[in-house]
Structure formats: structure tokens, C-alpha cells
């Protein structure tokens, strides 16, 4: 019984229930929403946000923040768009690899500032955000890359159906799977939690905290680069203001998903559900005929509620200084006839 | 208060006294656009340069914020006042928010005009409309009727995809569209949605339109970002031939969609001419040769000024498969 309550109290489970309720309510107002075709389309539309939120999660876990993701996305998107327009024969797979590498390099710039120079991440990424955005303008001269300038293969990849689901959605599913694997089973992934949860302790266990932060930025950048291609291809247009302000949605998805801004706390499921939540809101409100102004208000209210929930769950009743003594007490108590088996949970 | 006034006057006098010395007889005209990196405004800049080359003693400063906000434009204009330019020609992100800063510019002796998207009367001397708002509204509805005929239907539903809900020109055009609608009984307006000039939001709004109104025949988008996103969404949903997108857009951006069949026809005035005319009008004002009734627009002839300082350039031009590729290389 206790374990069920504990299970229900977990952020991911709560959020999952909220998302399901939301889908049910929207479905009851407009049954069209529940058509498989539509649900796939909503998920597909949210895929880019999910990928970016997972990258952002790693950065936030290490007590940093990456505000340059949207600008990174727009810059790599513009570069691959321009390359494709100039060399239509160049294989698109090569362009995708290039986008990921370029995004990773842009992320590495952020990471290097944080790691080697110790500049606060919010300042660095605020700066690079403007630099990347400005570079797009310098590169393109303000011109747009339009649908007819892109090669058919360039536009086709995210739209191709595999088992009835577009490749764009599959890409986000692959990223989710990779992230789960890394953050749960690889020391490489666990280090993000260690570095953010308690940097000093992490340092004493031999983890180079700055380097871990650097790696988080590189991964976030690489994913932003991937999304750069996906975005430009999906909307079939590249221009300076692509994904303007999208970084805030990405951070919001993480916060709603219970990723603690204080670092060290968060799960892939949380970030995923946070992004899905925002995606469903922005896709459904116009379908059920709610004014778009509510959209902003609802997202804002949910973010604040999520932050309050986060800070409450992180509030500790007080610091335990003598852990050994507490542990000894606990052992005493269990010896005094507590019959519950120690591994029963 | 008094000191303040004195300072303002002193600064203005100084500015007036210094400017002829500093830049001889060259006029510096600032072209302030809604945001940088928009093909439409780049084309307007091209026209402004053409006018500058014609006039000889004009330097055009092309500037604007990186995102379409009034705050960004206020910053840009503040710095232009500090640079003591001779004239500011602005396409406003907000009709009222820019008035205080533009009045300050006027107090410093700077000629202020607005073009494309207007500033309220108090904030400028002349507003150059790309066309007559009424003509644009009519044009959009005519295009919708044209597209409707393409679907083979006698009558049908259409929806409007706008930019932001506070965009001055969008709202006026929508108003004008609604006014002429009774003359087109075959068209039924079912919804107006706002894509905020963001590709992803416009795309999503289009998907919602397509799912909410299965019988929708036409989407009218008097804004380029919304137009492109709507056309792409119609294409991705496999509704080519059933739903047409039309409105105001640039040939270079829409040529692909005309080829694909998502767009039958669309209209736009020539943005090159718009920048060209705005520069000529600013020059005319600086030169003192403009009157209360007429301003020169160079090769486009003279513009008639109405009692509120509005000048209309020309009526929008229709592009379709027959001519879009000829213009796609230009703008």
C-alpha cells in the first residue's frame, strides 16, 4: 500500500496521469483528437521539443542552463539549408551528420567557457545565443532558403513513414532510448547526476565536474544540431528567426518534467512528459477552439505550479550531521521488533 | 522642467547647427524595418538603395531589431536619434508604442515617415501604404474566390491565417476583407487564426484548421511566414487540390508551392518599389519640396496625400504559374 502511494507521488507518474487526463478531456470535447492519425501527428509535432528537452535535461542536471539551443538549431538549420541549396547532389545523410557535428561544436563553445573559464552558464549561453542568431543573418545575408531550393531528398527524410509513423517521431524515440540507457546504465551518464547533485562530493570521487558540464553542453548542442536539420526540413524554410524563443519552451518542458534547476535531480521520463505536456497544449487548444491567449496563460501557470512542486519536494526537513548515529538508531529500532523485512520494498 | 526644455532646445539647435557641418549636403535616411532577415524588407532596402543612387546625395541606413517587437524598434530608433540621422522611415511593429520615441525624434528635427505598417498620426508626418488597405482587402477575397474555383466547388468555406493579433496592417486588412465579403456570397469565412509569424505555430494552426473544418477549401494568409507554413501543412497532409492557400507572399518564397499545386495564385506589391518610394518621400520632405497634397515617388509618379497624411503606392499585383518564376529571381 505504502509503495503504491510512493509510486503515485512520483513526479513522472503524476505528470503521466495529468497528460492522460488531458488527452481524455480534449477527446471528450472533440473526438477527432483521439484518432490515431491525429495522436501521431501531435507526437510528431512535439518530437523536436522532446529531443531538445532531453539535451537540456543533461545540462540542467549539472547545474547549468543552455539558452542557446534554439539559436544553435537555427544556425545549423540555416547552414545545412544553404549547403543543400548550393550542392543539391550532396547526400542528405552526410548533411545530417554534419548538422550533428556542427551543433556539437557550437555546444562545445558554451561548454568550454563554462569548464575552462568558469563563466556562469546563463551568461555564456545568453551571449552565444545572440552570436549564433547574428551569424545566421551574416551567413544568409537575410535571405530565406525556400522549399523549392531544397532537394526532394532533403525534404523527404523526416516525412517518410516507417510502420505508419514519420521518421521524425522515430528519431525522437531513438534519442529517448539512448538517453534512458545512458542516464541509467552508463557511468558516463550517472556522472551528470553526481556532478550536479553534489559537485564537491563528485570532485572527491574523482569526477571532473567542469568536464562533465562540458560534455552535457556538447550533447545538448549535438541534439540541437540534429533538430536544426529536422526543423528546416519539416517546415521547408530556413530564415533568421527560425525557432525564435523556442529555448524557453525547452527549459519549460524540463521544469514541468521535474528536472531541478538546482541540479542533480531529474529523469528522462520527466523531461519527455514535460515536453509532451506542452506539445499537447499547443496542439489541442486550437482544435477544441480555445483562444490561443489561453495557451500562453496555461503554459505559464503550469510552469509556476511545477516550480512550486519542485521546491517543496526538495525542501529537506533539516540537515543530518551525524549520519552514523541516525543509522545506528534505525538499526536499534528494527532490532526492537520491527518485523518488516529490510528488502521488502 | 524648464531646464529640461532648455536642454532639449539646446540639443535640437546644436543638432541642427552641427548636421550641415558634419555631413556636408548628404542626407542620411534610416530605413527601420520590422525585423532583419526578412526577404520582403531586404527587397525594400534594394529599392531604397536604387532611390539613393538616383538622388545622389542620400545615404540609406538599413536597420531594425532582430525580432518583430516594438521594444526592439524603440532601441533602434533611440540609437538613430543619437546618431542624428536626417530622416527615419519606419515599418512599425506597433502603431502606438512607437509614437513617444518618434515624437522625440521629430522634436530633434528628424523627419519621420512610416511605410508598410503604419504609425499613429501623432508619430509621423506621412504614412506610405504599400497599397490602399481597401484594395488589399478586396484583392485577398478575390484571390480566395479564384482559389475556390480551382477546387471545382461552387461555394465553400475559407479561413484566414494572420500574423500576431496586434499586427496593425493585418488587422486592417482583415477588417477590409470582411467588408467586401457580402459581394462574394460563395465564400463563407469560418475562422481567423493567428500564427504569430512563427513557422511552427502557423503550421500547427493550419493542421487544426484542416482537422476542424474538413470541408475547408481556401486558406487566406496575408503574411509570408504564415502563408509558407500553411502551404507546407496542406502539402504534408496530402490535401493538394482540395485546399488552396492564397494571400500575400513573395514570388521567390512561393514558386515551389505554385509548382506543387498548393498555391494557385497570390498577390504582393513590389517591395522594391515600396522602399524606393519611401526613400523618395523622405528626401522630398527633407528637401522641402513636398506639399500638403503631393509628394514625389520618383519613377512611380506623385503620391496624393490625404488629410491624415496617408499616401497609397499602387494596387497589389497577382502572381500565378504563368509569371511567378520570372519574379522569383528578383524578390
TrEMBL record, chain A:
The keyword Membrane applies. It is found in: Cell inner membrane. One of its GO terms (cellular component) is plasma membrane. The chain crosses the membrane at residues 13-30, 42-61, 67-87, 94-115, 161-182, 202-232, 253-281, 293-311. It comes from the Bacteria. It is a multi-pass membrane protein. GO terms for molecular function: transmembrane transporter activity. Keywords: Cell inner membrane, Cell membrane, Membrane, Transmembrane, Transmembrane helix, Transport. Pfam families: BPD_transp_2. Part of the ABC transporter complex LsrABCD involved in autoinducer 2 (AI-2) import. Probably responsible for the translocation of the substrate across the membrane. Belongs to the binding-protein-dependent transport system permease family. AraH/RbsC subfamily. The complex is composed of two ATP-binding proteins (LsrA), two transmembrane proteins (LsrC and LsrD) and a solute-binding protein (LsrB). This is Autoinducer 2 import system permease protein LsrC. It comes from Natronospirillum operosum.
From TrEMBL, chain B:
It is found in: Periplasm. It comes from the Bacteria. Residues 29-288 form the Periplasmic binding protein domain. One of its GO terms (molecular function) is carbohydrate binding. InterPro entries: Bact_Solute-Bind_Prot2, Peripla_BP_I, RhaS, SBP_2_dom. Residues 1-24 form the signal peptide. GO terms for biological process: rhamnose transmembrane transport. SUPFAM superfamilies: Periplasmic binding protein-like I. It holds the Pfam family Peripla_BP_4. Keywords: Signal. Its main location: periplasm. GO terms for cellular component: outer membrane-bounded periplasmic space. Belongs to the bacterial solute-binding protein 2 family. This is Rhamnose ABC transporter substrate-binding protein. The lineage of its organism: Bacteria, Pseudomonadati, Pseudomonadota, Gammaproteobacteria, Oceanospirillales.
Amino acid at each position: 500500500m505504502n509503495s503504491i502511494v510512493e509510486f503515485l507521488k512520483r513526479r513522472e507518474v503524476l505528470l503521466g496521469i495529468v497528460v492522460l487526463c488531458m488527452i481524455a478531456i480534449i477527446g471528450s470535447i472533440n473526438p477527432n483528437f483521439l484518432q490515431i492519425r491525429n495522436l501521431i501527428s501531435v507526437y510528431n509535432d512535439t518530437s523536436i521539443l522532446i529531443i531538445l528537452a532531453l539535451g537540456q535535461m543533461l545540462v540542467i542536471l549539472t547545474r547549468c542552463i543552455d539558452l542557446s539551443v534554439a539559436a544553435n538549431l537555427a544556425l545549423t538549420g540555416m547552414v545545412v539549408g544553404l549547403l543543400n541549396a548550393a550542392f543539391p547532389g550532396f547526400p542528405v545523410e552526410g548533411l545530417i551528420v554534419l548538422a550533428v557535428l556542427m551543433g556539437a561544436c557550437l555546444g562545445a563553445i558554451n561548454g568550454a567557457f563554462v569548464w575552462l573559464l568558469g563563466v556562469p552558464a546563463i551568461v555564456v549561453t545568453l551571449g552565444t545565443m545572440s552570436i549564433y542568431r547574428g551569424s545566421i543573418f551574416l551567413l544568409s545575408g537575410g535571405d530565406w532558403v525556400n522549399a523549392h531550393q531544397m532537394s526532394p531528398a532533403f525534404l523527404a527524410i523526416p516525412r517518410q513513414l516507417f510502420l505508419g509513423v514519420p521518421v521524425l517521431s522515430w528519431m525522437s524515440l531513438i534519442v529517448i532510448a539512448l538517453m534512458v540507457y545512458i542516464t541509467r546504465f552508463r557511468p558516463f551518464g550517472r556522472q551528470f547526476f553526481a556532478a550536479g547533485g553534489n559537485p564537491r562530493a563528485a570532485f572527491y570521487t574523482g569526477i571532473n565536474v567542469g568536464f562533465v558540464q562540458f560534455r552535457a553542453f556538447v550533447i545538448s548542442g549535438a541534439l540541437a544540431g540534429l533538430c536544426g536539420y529536422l526543423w528546416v526540413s519539416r517546415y521547408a524554410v530556413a530564415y533568421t528567426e527560425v525557432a525564435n524563443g523556442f529555448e524557453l519552451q525547452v527549459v519549460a518542458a524540463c521544469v514541468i518534467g521535474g528536472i531541478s534547476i538546482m541540479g542533480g535531480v531529474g529523469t528522462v521520463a520527466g523531461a519527455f512528459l514535460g515536453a509532451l505536456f506542452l506539445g499537447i497544449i499547443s496542439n489541442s487548444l486550437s482544435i477544441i477552439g480555445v483562444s490561443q491567449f489561453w495557451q500562453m496563460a496555461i503554459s505559464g501557470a503550469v510552469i509556476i505550479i511545477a516550480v512550486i512542486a519542485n521546491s517543496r519536494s526538495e525542501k529537506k526537513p533539516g540537515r543530518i550531521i551525524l549520519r552514523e548515529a541516525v543509522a545506528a538508531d534505525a538499526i536499534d529500532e528494527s532490532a526492537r521488533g520491527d518485523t518488516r523485512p529490510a528488502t521488502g520494498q | 522642467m524648464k531646464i529640461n526644455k532648455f536642454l532639449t532646445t539646446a540639443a535640437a539647435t546644436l543638432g541642427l547647427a552641427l548636421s550641415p557641418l558634419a555631413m556636408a549636403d548628404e542626407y542620411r535616411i534610416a530605413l527601420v524595418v520590422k525585423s532583419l532577415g526578412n526577404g520582403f524588407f531586404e527587397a525594400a532596402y534594394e529599392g531604397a538603395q536604387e532611390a539613393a543612387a538616383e538622388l545622389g546625395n542620400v545615404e540609406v541606413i538599413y536597420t531594425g531589431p532582430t525580432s518583430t517587437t516594438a521594444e526592439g524598434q524603440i532601441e533602434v530608433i533611440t540609437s538613430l536619434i543619437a546618431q542624428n540621422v536626417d530622416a527615419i522611415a519606419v515599418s512599425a511593429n506597433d502603431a502606438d508604442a512607437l509614437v513617444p520615441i518618434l515624437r522625440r525624434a521629430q522634436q530633434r528635427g528628424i523627419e519621420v515617415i512610416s511605410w508598410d505598417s503604419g504609425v499613429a498620426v501623432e508619430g509621423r508626418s506621412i504614412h506610405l501604404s504599400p497599397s490602399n488597405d481597401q484594395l488589399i482587402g478586396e484583392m485577398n477575397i478575390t484571390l480566395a474566390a479564384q482559389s475556390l474555383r480551382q477546387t471545382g466547388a461552387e461555394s465553400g468555406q475559407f479561413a484566414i491565417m494572420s500574423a500576431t493579433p496586434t499586427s496593425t496592417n493585418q488587422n486592417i486588412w482583415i477588417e477590409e476583407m470582411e467588408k467586401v465579403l457580402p459581394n462574394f456570397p460563395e465564400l463563407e469565412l469560418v475562422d481567423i487564426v493567428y500564427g504569430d509569424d512563427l513557422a511552427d505555430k502557423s503550421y500547427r494552426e493550419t493542421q487544426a484548421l484542416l482537422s476542424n473544418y474538413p470541408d475547408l477549401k481556401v486558406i487566406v494568409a496575408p503574411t509570408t511566414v504564415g502563408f509558407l507554413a500553411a502551404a507546407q501543412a496542406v502539402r504534408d497532409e496530402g490535401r493538394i487540390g482540395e485546399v488552396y492557400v492564397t494571400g500575400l507572399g513573395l514570388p521567390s518564397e512561393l514558386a515551389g508551392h505554385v509548382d506543387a499545386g498548393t498555391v494557385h495564385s497570390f498577390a504582393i506589391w513590389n517591395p522594391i518599389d515600396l522602399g524606393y518610394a519611401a526613400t523618395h518621400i523622405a528626401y522630398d520632405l527633407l528637401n522641402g519640396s513636398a506639399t500638403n497634397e503631393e509628394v514625389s515617388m520618383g519613377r512611380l509618379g506623385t503620391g496624393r496625400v490625404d488629410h491624415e497624411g496617408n499616401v497609397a503606392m499602387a494596387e497589389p499585383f497577382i502572381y500565378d504559374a504563368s509569371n511567378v518564376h520570372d519574379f522569383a529571381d528578383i524578390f
